[in-house]
Amino acid sequence: MDFKDIIGNADAKDYLSKSVKQNNILHSYLFSGTEGIGKLLIAKEFSKMILCHTQNEHCDCKSCIAFDGNNHPDFTVINEDCNDNIKVETIRNLTEKVYEKPILSNKKVYIINNCDKMTVEAQNCLLKTLEEPPEFIVIILITANENLILNTIKSRCMTVKFHGIEDKDLINYCKNNLSYVEISDNLLKSFDGSIGKAIKLKDSKDKFDKLEKLISNLEKISIIELLQEKSIFDRDNINDVLDYMIVCLYSNSSKNNKYLDCIKTINECSNRLRSYSNFDMTIDNMLLGLWEELNESSNRC
Which residues have CB under 8 Å from 259's CB, separation 6+? Predict the structure, then answer.
């Protein structure tokens, strides 16, 4: 039993494996790192190790069978799909159940995924359990936004830092598992070491290829030609598109520093969209601003 099927973060996996083998399991952990790099997968495997009866590599104890069948009575994941804020009622329910003794294993494990989505009231509700946990309880908090967690919570957890997947491992994974044929340097940068983001952006690859070419040709095309490419900017994934534009602008800044100045225009567009400004008008203004930043000065000469 180990983390061999989960790529990356060897140091974190080694620390957690040794903790189980040496029976040095703490009551509370904070798994912190970029979204989509396997923190939840590692937390689940760590939980399975903690609950296992034998610690054999290929174990078929009752605990492992129940865990693999997603019906282990001593294991709970809160907010697995990362969709909603975690309200105080959810944590209050957890804190009531943690004092019930384990049914199948010697311990009980709770994972709170994207724990930064806990309201302040929910975090404060959890605090007492972290201060005085039952001897059989293990709570694993997972976050990509550690700064949103109360210091009183963090001070009572062992923080385990997770890092982005190395480029070579990420490229191999994308080609072998996600059917990527080619991955440009800009697209690889936009993945930010995250398999989750590579999965998310997979269906938009053709659009991003067009966007990369568009950014590279900003100094060569007319404003009319630029506006004709407006279909790239759809509402559903506009944040990913704007983020990718910034990556491409940085890449082109070596040939013209004005590309760096264009990033301000992207950020202004993003802020306007968050303020619910008219979508089409905001995109038009952004495209016009980008073109003028790179072309207006030469046109005046």
Answer: 215, 249, 250, 252, 253, 294
